[in-house]
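can u do me a favor
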C-alpha cells in the first residue's frame, strides 16, 4: 500500500468529540469553512485535511483511495479525542468508507455525503461521461480555473447560490491540475463494492435528488447494504448539499450525530 505523509490539516474548536472532514476531488479543506463554523458552534472539535497534492501539500507520484485512507487513519491516530466521527464528501466519502474499513471500531459514526462505494456504480456510459467532462478539458490545455466553476454549476440544483458556494468556487480555482488528475485516476481505479456491508457503526448517507455525479439511488442502495445505515435525500439539490441548502444539510447531519453519539454513550 502506498504510504503518504501526514496531510496538511487544521483544527478548530475544543471538545472531546472530533469531527473529521474529507473534501471531494474539486476543492480542498478550505471549502469547508462554513461547515467548520457550524459544527464548532454546535460544540464539536473539527479537523479538516487536504488530500495528497491539494492545498500546500506535495503532489505524490501516485494516489489511491486506500492510500489516502491510510493517511487519514494516521491523522486520526495523531489527533483523536474520546469520540471521533468522520464526514466525507464525494471523493472524500470513498476515502471515509475505506478509513472505517481499515480500522474497524475506530469511528463512532460516519457521514457519507454525495458519494458512492465504487466507481462502477452506474455503468460504462456514466464512467465515460465522468472522465470526459473532468479530464478532457485538461488534456486540451485548459486550466481548472477555466472550466471547473461552470462545470460545477451544472452539478448543482437550479437557483443554487450563497456564500458557501461562492467560497467553494473560489477555492476550486486554486487547485493544481496534476493533483486533480491523480485524484480522478484514484476514483476511477476504486472498484471495491464490498466495504459497505462491513461498516458496523451508524452511517448516514445524504444525497441530492438532482445529483447525477453520485445519484441518490446509488446512495440509497449503499445505505441498505450497511447494518446501521440511514438515508436522507435532499429534494431539489444537486451534488453540493452543504452549500446549496446549508440549513437542511447541517441540520440533518447534526441530528444524526446527536442520535448516534447518544447511543454510543
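np, heres the sequence
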Amino acid at each position: 500500500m502506498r504510504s503518504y505523509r501526514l496531510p496538511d490539516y487544521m483544527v478548530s474548536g475544543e471538545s472531546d468529540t472530533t469531527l473529521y472532514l474529507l473534501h471531494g476531488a474539486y476543492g480542498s479543506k478550505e471549502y469547508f469553512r462554513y461547515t467548520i463554523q457550524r459544527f464548532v458552534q454546535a460544540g464539536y472539535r473539527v479537523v479538516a485535511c487536504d488530500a495528497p497534492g491539494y492545498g500546500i501539500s506535495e503532489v505524490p507520484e501516485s494516489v489511491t483511495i486506500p492510500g489516502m485512507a491510510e493517511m487519514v487513519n494516521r491523522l486520526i491516530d495523531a489527533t483523536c479525542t474520546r469520540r471521533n466521527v468522520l464526514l466525507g464528501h464525494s471523493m472524500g466519502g470513498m476515502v471515509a468508507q475505506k478509513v472505517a474499513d481499515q480500522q474497524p471500531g475506530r469511528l463512532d459514526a460516519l457521514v457519507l455525503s454525495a458519494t458512492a462505494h465504487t466507481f462502477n456504480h452506474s455503468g460504462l456510459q456514466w464512467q465515460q461521461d465522468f472522465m470526459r467532462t473532468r479530464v478532457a478539458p485538461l488534456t486540451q490545455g485548459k486550466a481548472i480555473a477555466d472550466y471547473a466553476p461552470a462545470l460545477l454549476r451544472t452539478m448543482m440544483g437550479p437557483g443554487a447560490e450563497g456564500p458557501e458556494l461562492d467560497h467553494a468556487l473560489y477555492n476550486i480555482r486554486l487547485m493544481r491540475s496534476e493533483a486533480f488528475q491523480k485524484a480522478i485516476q484514484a476514483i476511477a481505479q476504486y472498484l471495491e463494492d464490498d466495504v459497505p456491508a462491513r461498516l458496523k457503526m451508524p452511517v448516514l448517507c445524504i444525497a441530492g435528488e438532482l445529483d447525477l455525479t453520485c445519484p441518490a439511488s446509488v446512495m440509497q442502495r449503499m445505505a441498505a447494504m450497511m447494518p446501521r445505515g440511514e438515508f436522507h435525500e435532499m429534494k431539489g439539490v444537486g451534488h453540493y448539499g452543504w452549500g446549496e441548502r446549508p440549513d437542511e444539510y447541517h441540520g440533518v447531519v447534526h441530528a444524526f450525530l446527536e442520535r448516534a453519539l447518544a447511543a454510543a454513550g
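The chain has a mean pLDDT of 92. hope that helps!!
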